[in-house]
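To: structure subgroup
Subject: Chain for Friday's discussion

All,

I'm putting the inputs and outputs inline so they're searchable in the archive.
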Amino acid sequence: MNKKLFYKRLTAMILGGLLTVSAGSVSAANTVQLNLNDAVQMALENNRSIKTALANVDVAKWNLSKYRRQTGVTLSLSSAANHANDTLAVQHGYDNTYFTNSASASIPLYNFSLRSGIESAGYALNAADVTLENTKQSIRYQATADYYNILNYKNLIKVQEDAVRAYQEHLDNVNAQYRVGTVAKSDVLSSQVNLANAQQALTTAQNNYDIAIATLNNVIGLPTDTALEIDEELKHPAYNLNLNDCTNYALNNRADGAAAYYAVKQAEAGINTAKAGWYPTVTASANKAIDGKSAFRADHSNTWVFGATATWNIFDNGVTTANVNNAEASLVKAQEALKTQDETIQLDVRTALLNLQAAEKNISTTETAVTQAEEDLKIAHVRYSAGVGTNLDVMDATEKMTLARTNYNTALYKYNVSKAALDKAMGIPVDIDVAKYKASQMEGNRLKKVRDDAKVTANPVLELTPEAKKASKEETKAMRQAEREVRNAADANKQAAAEKKTVTEKKTAVVSEPTKNTEQPASTAAVASEMAK
């Protein structure tokens, strides 16, 4: 199975929740077993910075296509229905209502601005290609460094666990001696304090490990709560590199250096674009027009014309000169940026190589220190058990052993990270060899040939895939649907609120209406008769 397809399917399974591990809870985190190559490949497949760089390549490609399309033939059609007064109708067979139709075609014969625009857009596409490669190299380094960071904290957890175990065993020994009255209470208390400090350091190391896992998950495109099972250990591979060779390779192969070079070429093309104001433009065109009483009829007129048109701005009050001076200043700016980038490349290589050499020396030194610290701790334990050593001697020896082991693992971690940083500083390729890319492009080859000459993998992803474009359209469609649903819900809420308000107003009106007196007033005779009773 294709490895890239495997990583895509693996990520899809993770995101779909198919690789679920039960750990006695209702919802357990996904667990994935990874090695360094897996992590790097998944990062290259899923990282969003790479997807953004791919989109930038497509933007540059279609921008170049836009300029190239302008050098070809353009066709246009027009049709109109007209109603005119008698004076104008004379020109159209005395028909007040008439129809006109025309077709025209044109092609630029000479357009200096268009030619330089094509040149500039081509360099922009070259810059997008090498910037994509630079992004991939950066993500490869980031995934590698984050992977090594996990291994580092994994080792530090083991160091702190050993420290906690050592402090606990010593505390047990101190308590035993305290119960028989051979040591003071202060030894127990100081041992308890050191144990608590070691436990706190262990908690910190475990937390840093969890953060390192989440960080790598974020880089390789997995949910941050995914549990990673990593069985590798930090190693100490030998290297045979010198500064001059590394620097020369980097100056020829760094992708960001190539991007700065193509920025200079774009600036050079920009000068030509500015100079276009001093040159004429020549366009060939042909036109056919018909005029009739009915649509698409030529009973009034049927004409055609073809020719060439030249336009030349003889005097523009110095605008073109100002544009040229502006473009020349931009070229100087791009040239200085290229020189700065070359100096940065040299500094990056030197820094990475020096860090690598220092880490290698520290590995040897700290390895010896670990052996010595372990021996010193054994002696301190024996002396304390024999009653000739102090509790402080044991605590100090334990602390030194923990520090020596920590320093050894840190040196091993820095060595591996520095080696990855040196690869990044030198521009070790991911998908394309930048030096071959530049050489092929300078030979005047078309883009496809340039990419084929430079690729170092069988099927490099250098543009947005059809799947990515389809996913983008589906995402846009889903967002619009969600927006419509929100608007519909808001309208429904407003309508419900209006109906509720209407009902409330009606009820209020009924309650506030005065009660009518239905009793008829008694007559005077009736009142007198009632009083006589």
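Points worth raising on Friday:
The beta strands are 31-33, 74-83, 97-111, 227-229, 281-292, 301-311.
The first helix runs from residue 3 to 15.

D.
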